[in-house]
Design goal:
Layout lengths: L6 H11 L27 H10 L23 H10 L7 H4 L6 E5 L3 H12 L9 H9 L4 E8 L24 H13 L3 E8 L2 H4 L15 H4 L19 H26 L3 E6 L18 H12 L5 E7 L1 H4 L6 H4 L1 H5 L4 E4 L15 H22 L5 E6 L34 H19 L4 E6 L7 H6 L13 H16 L2
Parallel strand pairs: 1-2, 2-3, 3-4, 4-5, 5-6, 6-7, 7-8
Length: 507
């Protein structure tokens, strides 16, 4: 480690040369990590004190944080200090200003639904011409959308498979986008002025149905055979258990191959101008950086190595898409989840924000005010404290939606409630509106109202599963089905009005 200069000497040197850097403007490009470590928009003495705390550490130290390694060489040393000195006194655009919070976002989903058909058609025609249907782009523009989310599938075979892979074959239920198709999608969205958020997600449904099954949300939990016997997980088939004879090899190979995939897509993200990248989706027993509570183990070393290797090829914003159950049931996850953001030094706090808004499944339409009262409690009890614990890290709902049925408020993330059910107009309250679509619109309006009530807490929502399709293609099937999408529904006008107001406030 480079510890040959003391913090006192750094202070003296800083004070002697700050006049060289005061009042300079910042020329750092958007989304590049800077010397404004505390996120207040000014590189000042508080940032210096943070820098001193980590000075001399290298990437092999558990407390090393990449944001203080300003030249990215793996050691926080004098060369980084000189970069800091050159930045001292500069004003730095706040992340909220650079990203025009709140985002005007929709999530396109992954290689499923009508997305699969759109991509397959482009592949079949020799990858010539545009991939995304033009009327879908026009629909996004009519909503004033400026961010889209894309999910990229990763695969494994079963609970004994330690190798994370890309599977492009259509033999699996959700194949990985080909690199060419993924690049084309990113390029086309960006050519229309839309930023892209890319997330990795294990989509190995075949593994969940295998003779040695595992769901992605179970991976990393050493107690799975004991916790979930109904899932047919046998101790001999669970190398995540600390006492399994193959545990060390399995864990090492899993994280190495996972990191290789993360780096592969990080390179694509860098080359194609993706501005936000997530290392995973809803694998919260894996994404733990500390032991404690009921947990004897954690994956902090492996996760920090993944972040370091990704940052070596990608300089945009990093996040992880955490399921909201981590905060609803903290005793199940513990300090390794509570401190994930700071331990990995991630830029954005991302959530699959499937908040239940009612204790029971309602049978009638509930009002905006009812849902807003529930959201207000969620903001007060969970999100405001989370923001206070993570200054400078914005919160985004990187995945969220509700299906257009009245029951969805109890368990929004449960697609089995109604996804794909044929649409039958129902109006039990007699106001001329379909009850399910009125419920969906009321929930979205309540969330938008609560975001306005608590400004700068939630900085945008990627509304889930708004798949690519031409107007004709959409009308053929999904326009007549219950789903998370907002296209052609009451919720579309709710989102459009909100996004127009955001655009006017941040043109």
């Amino acid at each position: 480690m480079c510890q040959w200069i003391t913090p006192v000497a750094l202070i003296a040197l800083t004070l002697s040369i700050t006049s060289l850097s005061l009042a300079q403007s910042n020329d750092t490009s958007p989304f590049t990590r800077s010397s404004d470590f505390d996120g207040d928009g000014i590189v000042g003495f508080s940032d210096f004190l943070l820098f001193v705390e980590y000075f001399g550490l290298d990437h092999t130290d558990e407390t090393y944080k990449a944001r203080f390694d300003l030249n990215g060489n793996g050691t926080i040393e004098f060369s980084d200090f000189l970069i800091f000195v050159s930045d001292f006194g500069k004003t730095v655009p706040l992340l909220s200003d650079m990203m025009n919070f709140p985002l005007r976002a929709l999530h396109v989903g992954g290689n499923w639904g009508t997305n699969t058909e759109v991509v397959a058609e482009w592949e079949a025609t020799g990858r010539v011409g545009t991939l995304i249907p033009p009327d879908y782009i026009e629909w996004l523009k009519s909503l004033q959308v400026n961010w889209v989310g894309l999910s990229v599938a990763l695969h494994y075979d079963d609970s004994m498979d330690s190798t994370v892979e890309r599977v492009y074959s259509s033999d699996v239920r959700i194949p990985t986008f080909s690199d060419e198709a993924l690049r084309q999608l990113i390029r086309e969205f960006r050519s229309h002025g839309m930023n892209v958020y890319l997330t990795l997600a294990f989509e190995a449904f075949e593994a969940e149905e295998a003779a040695r099954p595992v769901y992605r949300w179970q991976m990393g939990n050493p107690y799975a055979p004991r916790w979930w016997p109904d899932y047919l997980i046998l101790p001999e088939n669970w190398p995540w258990s600390i006492d399994h004879p193959d545990h060390e090899r399995f864990v090492a190979e899993f994280w190495e191959t996972y990191t290789q995939q993360a780096v592969h897509f990080a390179r694509i993200a860098q080359e194609e101008g993706v501005q936000m990248y997530s290392l995973g989706t809803e694998t919260d027993y894996l994404f733990r950086t500390r032991s404690g509570n009921r947990w004897p183990n954690h994956f902090g070393k492996e996760l920090k190595s993944m972040v370091e290797r990704v940052r070596s090829v990608y300089d945009g914003l990093l996040t992880y898409d955490m399921h909201i159950d981590v905060f609803r049931w903290p005793h199940d996850f513990g300090p390794g989840s509570d401190h994930l953001w700071e331990d990995l030094d991630l830029d954005i706090i991302g959530f699959s924000a499937w908040f239940p808004l009612t204790d029971l499944r309602p049978s009638t339409v509930l009002s905006v005010e009812t849902f807003q009262a529930s959201y207000s409690q969620i903001f007060q009890n969970l999100l405001v404290p989370l923001t206070n614990r993570n200054p400078g890290r914005p919160i985004l709902f990187t995945e969220y939606g509700v299906i257009d049925v009245v029951e969805s408020s109890q368990s929004p993330g449960d697609s089995s409630i109604a996804e794909g059910r044929r649409f039958v107009f129902t109006d039990l309250n007699g106001n001329g509106l379909d009850d399910g679509r009125e419920t969906q619109a009321n929930i979205y309006q309540a969330l938008i109202n609560t975001m306005a009530q608590y400004p700068e807490i939630v900085n945008g929502v990627f509304y889930w599963n708004n798949w690519m399709a031409s107007d004709e293609h959409w009308a053929e099937y999904w326009a007549g089905r219950r789903n998370y999408d907002i296209r052609g529904k009451l919720a579309e006008e709710v989102v459009r009005a909100a996004y127009e107001s955001y655009r006017q406030a941040n043109p």
